[in-house]
Amino acid sequence: MREKLEELQVEALQKVDDASDAKELQDVRVAYLGKKGPITEVLRGMGKLSKEERPVIGELANKVREKIAQAIEQKKTVFEAQEIEKKLAEETIDVTLPGRPAPSGGPHLLTSIVEEIEDIFIGMGFEVREGPEVETDYYNFEALNLPKGHPARDMQDSFYITEELLLRTHTSPVQARTMNAIGGNKPVKMICPGKVYRRDTDDATHSHQFTQIEGLYVDKNVRMSDLKGVLDRFAKKVFGEDREIRLRPSYFPFTEPSVEMDISCKVCHGEGCNVCKQTGWIEILGGGMVHPRVLEMAGYDPKVYSGFAFGMGPERIAMLKYGVNDIRHFYTNDVRFLNQYHKA
Q1: Is residue 218 part of a domain?
Q2: Partner of 244 for a Cys bridge, out of 103, 142, 152, 264, CB 3.0 to 4.6 A?
Q3: Which tens digits make up the pLDDT trace of 46-104?
């Protein structure tokens, strides 16, 4: 797979160099960086690799994609300059007229955060999985150790469509579906981003619709220290190499033991301030070791396999990273807010 990625890089860079106009350049972008391109196909096939190879190939794929994108942007700049020179030579313009700038769009802040998190975990050998937003009660609750009547169901007040169908309250059902599909006899290392829904009153920190990214790693001899290492790498990539993490005991029905993860406050660096409520730490996500009952229901033998799972909210990540004080800003489509995070 390494050789294939290197060949794709050489081939793509040559086609970028050979492109004679912007249309050909765009065709190269779509062919190699699009959702149906060969690099995406390589990433989708990473599940077949050994756990040692996945992070190496994931990192290499990201580097190849970045080099191709940089080459395309450089060539695009050349074409744009040539086009301007051509127009200046052919057209007579009145330079005293005021300009008419055309506003340009860009990725939404949440989209950018989700893609950044995906890239981090792909680099660590995780693959990205998706599932339905209208979910069955079984996968949303029962397969995650939440049988009917379980009191922990009250933690997630749900939008039911029928007695057995609802809008999913978290992305964990994708984990259960993936383990069932694998059959309980192979490792799984995945993240699942997506929208989730809960009956909640919208305010500065809550929304009835929001985004979650949950992760799962199941294999032989997976330990809590593996979870801590993955989350520590994630926190440093997102918030900076100087950030520290800590894990506190908690409770979730689908993990045992369960933990909450805090990161050191970037404002006071752990000394204590109003942002961290004088603790020096800010809660960011939850996780733990996959409950043996969840493994059994997915077909895994908990005496042979173990695993960890975690879940985070990209809205909270964005609020902490960029200092956003109201979650509703992400959904009201106020261009004054969105333009602050548009990268030209």
Answers
A1: yes
A2: 264
A3: 677 777 777 777 787 788 888 888 888 888 898 888 888 888 788 776 778 888 888 77
Annotated binding site for Mg(2+): 256
Residues 185 and 271 in one domain: yes
Q: What is the pTM of this model?
A: 0.65
Nearest residue to 126 (alpha-carbon basis) of 178, 65, 169: 178
Same domain as 308, residue 265: yes
53 lies in the same domain as 123: no
Position 53 in a domain: yes
Number of structural domains in the chain: 2
- Residue 4, pLDDT score: 75
Token pair, residue 26, equals 């765009």
Q: Is the dihedral of CA 58, 61, 67, 69 positive or negative?
A: negative
Domain identity same for 328 and 187: yes
Burial class (CB in 10 A: 0-12, 13-18, 19+), 332: exposed
Is beta strand 188-197 parallel, antiparallel or unpaired with respect to 127-128? parallel
Q: Which domain holds residue 38?
A: 2-90
Residue 317 tokens, joined: 């990540």
DSSP notation for 220-284: TT--HHHHHHHHHHHHHHHH-TT--EEEEEEEETTEEEEEEEEEE-TTTTTS--TTTTTSSEEEE
Residues at the binding site are: 256
Summarize the chain as % helix, strand, coil (round to 5).
Answer: 45, 20, 35
- pLDDT tens track for 200-247: 777 777 788 889 999 999 999 999 999 999 999 999 999 889 888 999
Query: Would 254 be classed as within a structural domain?
Result: yes
Cα separation, 276 vs 287, in Å, equals: 21
What is the phi/psi pair of residue 291, to 5°?
A: -60, 135
Q: Is residue 135 part of a domain?
A: no
pLDDT at 275: 66
